What we know:
- It contains 11 helices and 15 strands.
- It is an alpha+beta fold.
Amino acid sequence: MKVIEEEIKIPKGYKAAAVSAGIKKENRLDMALIFSESPCVTAGTYTTNVVKAAPVLWDKEITASDTKARAIVVNSGVANACTGKEGMLYCEDTAKTLSEKFNILPKEVLVASTGVIGAQLPMDKIKSGIEKMVPDLKEEVSNFELASKAIMTTDTLPKKACVTLEIGGKEVTITGMCKGSGMIHPNMCTMLSFIITDLAISKNLLQKALSKNVDDTYNMISVDGDTSTNDTVLLLANGKAQNPEITEENEDYKAFEEALNYINETLAKKIASDGEGATALFEMTVKNAATKKDAKILSKSVITSNLTKAAIFGHDANWGRIICALGYSGVDFDPEVIDLYFESKAGKIDILKNGNATSYSEETATKILSEPYVKAVADMKNGKESATAWGCDLTYEYVKINADYRS
């Protein structure tokens, strides 16, 4: 697997476009289109919030069927959530408008929205945006860069990831883009992620790989503990790489799983590090827990603790907050045996040994916690399972952003 660090690479057969359709203020990019020259097998995971936005319901029906998709239309600014039957009709109308341009079925068009909940889509602007984007579709990196910006809401920067790998003697490319900054606590944030590949793979294995991977990536991040109505991850594979189709869990499948994990973990961490108002990415690893489930619960309990998040913002090695968060997680463990340390580019420092504070230097600890990427590791000494979760610090700016969100 080769990670594309700088300019992303576009998988064979895909084009993209973006436009300012007037949905947002100040003529900002607010619509994106991803299109495949050939039909794609699809996979998707979605919010577990009981309140699901209309696009989530539309896409779930498509990815659960044998329908092969050709396009994804995304708007930012309006979430099309809590919009009733009218919201569903607008999804269909959006899909139909695009489908007529390419003589395909509306059900071959996936849709996604993000933004303010409760407002109806301005369909005149949506349709006008589609009219403008279709002629601008290009298989160029610059177009995908614009698309990644168009799906943003309170994000401060676009989020992308790309890898190439060899499967069956053919070069395969996997490229992903996502948005997410607030209302981030996936249980599958407002989080949208779109991943495209030219891999040839069966639908059931594509879905299996995505569902499994989401649990260890997007579901292990949190910004504010709020699970969005619109969380959507879509994965499209059009087979244009012409590798022998993956139809069983062989070495090619494992190689794809590894590459997909890199894409999703990278995007997930970018969401966490760009949490609204955040100044630091906070990573919590729990190792030697009794079960994998315990390790996940424990690590996520820490990164969702507002007191711990505030301590990270203050560069304060207040380890008692971490122990407290571990303790109320619901997982049983012996606090008298735990080891805990912090680390970053500035170094590593042991904080606890067998449940007792070490004679660590507060000055050194503050230096380590002042980096933009801070890690904490807790050794539970209770088994062999590990898990990692990602969050961010809690700052004054978070409150300001969300107090002003609709104004």
